[in-house]
């Protein structure tokens, strides 16, 4: 703890600082609660996307066995562009998944199995789900980082700044009180000496 000056100005400065800390702390605590709530929601969405992926993969496995030989999917389907928007949660800018644009090459109907179209559609869905999940995971990372910073600030105010300001106010008030008492005592002694001197001179 930094040593505080034992003056009236220092006392005022410490009282002002304490008011500031006490006014700002509830805002930080509210932000912390909001972030915790949003993070739980984002976690739930990530889990939901993982379950969708797992269900889609299980469904694909049922018919992918129909392919007699491996298919080079990149010939038919590529990601051309990922469209992202921007959101804001508790002051944190986060990416928002909007869409994915695919570059498609229509397979030769005479040279490929009839179910390859279904395979391309399923693959598009899978890629889209995975990209969306990654964006949501990035939201989780950014919100968690902000929560960690906010939590540190809440702890700093609750456990350091506010107790420190209160202690400084206590120390300065005691010192100023002692100074005032000492000043009154000195004044009485000086007055008594003056009265005694005047009495001696009168006698």
Terminal CA distance? 59 Å
How would a textbook summarize the main sheet? 2 strands, antiparallel
Class by SSE composition: alpha+beta
Number of strands: 2
Residue share in helices? over 70%
Question: Could you explain how this protein is built, in words?
Answer:
This protein has two helices and two strands, in the order αββα. The chain has helices at residues 8-64, 116-202; strands at 77-89, 92-104. It is rod-shaped, with a radius of gyration of 36 Å.
Give a quick rundown of the structure.
This protein is an alpha+beta fold and 203 residues long. It has helices at residues 8-64, 116-202, and strands at residues 77-89, 92-104. A hairpin with a 2-residue loop joins strand 1 and strand 2.
Q: Could you name the key traits of this structure?
A:
13% strand, 203 residues, rod-shaped, alpha+beta, 2 strands, 2 helices, two-stranded antiparallel ribbon
Write the layout of secondary structure elements.
Elements: H1 8-64, E1 77-89, E2 92-104, H2 116-202
Antiparallel strand pairs: 1-2
């Amino acid at each position: 703890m930094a040593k505080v000056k034992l003056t009236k100005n220092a006392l005022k400065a410490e009282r002002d600082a304490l008011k500031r800390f006490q006014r700002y702390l509830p805002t930080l605590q509210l932000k912390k609660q909001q972030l915790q709530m949003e993070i739980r929601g984002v976690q739930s969405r990530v889990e939901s996307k993982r379950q969708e992926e797992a269900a889609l993969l299980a469904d694909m496995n049922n018919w992918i066995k129909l392919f007699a030989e491996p298919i080079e999917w990149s010939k038919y389907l590529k990601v051309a562009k990922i469209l992202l928007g921007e959101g804001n949660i508790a002051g944190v800018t986060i990416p928002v998944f909007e869409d994915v644009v695919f570059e498609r090459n229509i397979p030769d109907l005479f040279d490929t199995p009839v179910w390859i179209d279904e395979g391309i559609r399923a693959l598009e869905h899978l890629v889209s789900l995975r990209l969306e999940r990654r964006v949501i995971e990035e939201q989780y990372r950014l919100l968690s980082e902000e929560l960690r910073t906010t939590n540190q600030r809440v702890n700093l105010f609750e456990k350091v700044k506010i107790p420190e300001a209160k202690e400084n106010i206590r120390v300065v008030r005691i010192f100023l009180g002692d100074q005032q008492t000492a000043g009154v005592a000195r004044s009485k002694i000086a007055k008594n000496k003056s009265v005694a001197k005047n009495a001696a001179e009168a006698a």
